[in-house]
Each structure stands twice: as C-alpha cells, then as structure tokens.
Amino acid sequence: MTGPEQRLREALEARAASVTYGDLRPPLPPSASGPLIRMLRRGVKAAGLLGLAAALAAVMLMLSDAPEHSPAQVPAPSRTPAPAPHRPSATPATSAAPTPSPDVPRPEGPEPSAG
Amino acid sequence: MSATPLLVPVHPVQGIRRLLRRVADGRAGAVPVPVPPALDVGSGCEDIDTLYHHRRLELVRLAVLLVDDVPTAEDVVQDAFTALYRRHGPRLAGLDNPEGYLRRCVVNAARSVLRRRRTVRSYVPPRTTPAPPPEEEVLLREEHREVLDALRRLTHRQRQVIVLRYWSNLSEVEIADTLGLSRGTVKSTASRGLAALARRLEEAP
Questions:
Q1: What is the complex's ipTM, to 2 decimals?
Q2: Which residues are CB-neighbours of B136 under 8 A, at least 6 positions away?
Q3: Which CATH architecture fits B137-205?
Q4: A18, B58, B126, B175: which has the fewest C-beta neighbours closer than 10 Å?
Q5: CB-CB neighbors (< 8 A) of A38 in chain B
Q6: Could A11 and B33 be called an inter-chain contact, meaning their C-beta atoms sit closer than 8 Å?
C-alpha cells in the first residue's frame, strides 16, 4: 500500500473511531418512534370501524322493523280507535240553553197589531 | 474541478461537552475501531430494530466522514432508517440487502446535505479555511487532521468514492451500485481523488 493510501486509511479510521455510542443520541428505532402519532392513527381507525359497525347496525335495525308491504296488498285498517258513541249523562246538563223549535205550538191570542 | 472548503455547522459548546464526557470516561486516547457484529444479511430473519441497533453506529461513522459533524450524521442515518421502515415495514419484507439500501440512503442524503451547504455558502461570505469539528481538533493527531482537511477539499463525488473505498472497504462494483455509477467511473474517480489528495498533502506545510 502506498503512503497516501495508508495515511488515508489511518485518518479515516481515527475520525470514525472518534465517534462512539456515547456521542450518539439515545437510540430511537423507527418502529418505536412517534408513539403518539401511531396511537392517534389506531384511534382514528378504531373510531372509523366503530362508526361503520354502528351504521350497519342501524340499517339492519331499520330493515327488520320496517313493515313488509307489496303493491298488491291492501293497507291494513288503521288501529286508531273510533270516536266512542255519546252516552247520556245521568245528570242533566245545566248549561244547555233551550232552543226554539218549529214544532213548539205558539201561544194563542191576538196578534199584536202594527199600528 | 475545484472543491471549496466545507463549513462545518457544529456548535462548539456541543463538541466541548462531548469531549469532556469522553475525557471523564477515559476515552480520550486512541480508540480502536470496534468491528460491528456480523448480521445474517439476506436471510430475512432480522427486523429493523435489530438492524438499527447493530448498524447505527457504523452508519453514523460513515455519514460523519461524508458530512463532518455528528448531529447531521445522526439525522442522516435516522432518516435512512425511517425511509427503510416506511418502505419495507418492521420485518423488511421484500428486501434482499437492507444494509446496501441503508448505505445508499446515507450516501445520497449526505450528498444532499453537502449540496445545501454549498448553496448556503453562495449567500454568505466564504471562509478561507474549513472549520473542523472541535472534538476532531483535540482528539486527532496532526497528520490525520491534514488528511481529513485535504479530503474535505475534494469534490463530493471523489470524497464519497474515497470514503467508501478506503473506509467501508467496498469493491468497485459495490461502490458503483451504491452511487449509481458505472464501474469505470468509480475507478477513474477514485484514482483522480487519490491523486488530488496526495497533491494536497504534499502542498501542506
């Protein structure tokens, strides 16, 4: 090996050896870096999956509750109760005012004259 | 082609802090280069965490030789691992040579860093001499500093080829694959880079 090459190797080795583990920052492998970001990503994914599951469940629930009707079917009668027939009350109504009826005979007597 | 000196954006306080820590640990002297443990590359049994713990330091060292300062080198390597993770997942599915992928990412990102620095330099007054990192100034011997100084003055491409050839010990084919060049270009670039380096070392006082 020639002079410059030998000197070069020695100088490079000396410079490289001047860097040791003690000079480096604490090790942080990329798989362990950014735990917060990874946790957030996992949270977003979990929330997305949960949302999807909830939406699917809601759709299933709606489909199972919906009445099955086809165009040929007659709509079922309403189940709302009809108005009940009027029952006579045991106590007479006091508030009802008597109304004149055409069948009521007029009282006899001279008719008042106009003049 | 002439290379302009590189500005090294290392905060002096950070370098001094690092140096003090090393002195306190008794590591201020010459440190032997530890050989990274061998990985069963290509078997598909390693995951990104294993690769990260086994190869991070080596890749940071490679990046330091390309971008000069440790914080930027760490950023470059972290980005490379993040890109690998995003593209191939934690199990590195469908990747035959994860180390080659990482090396390519690091070299490309280092080139982008150097390009950005060159753009910044065109807007600020140039400095006459490159500023080496503070820890390098203290820890490295004078002759090593001269070589590294000469290395910084090479073109980006020459520097990459030289570092991959003489520090990573890659073959010409591997360097060509990493840099996306032909084998002939790698050979000629290495030859010219080495010649320029030798010339600058001779010129050095």
A1: 0.73
A2: A15, A18, B145, B148
A3: Orthogonal Bundle (1.10)
A4: B126
A5: none
A6: no
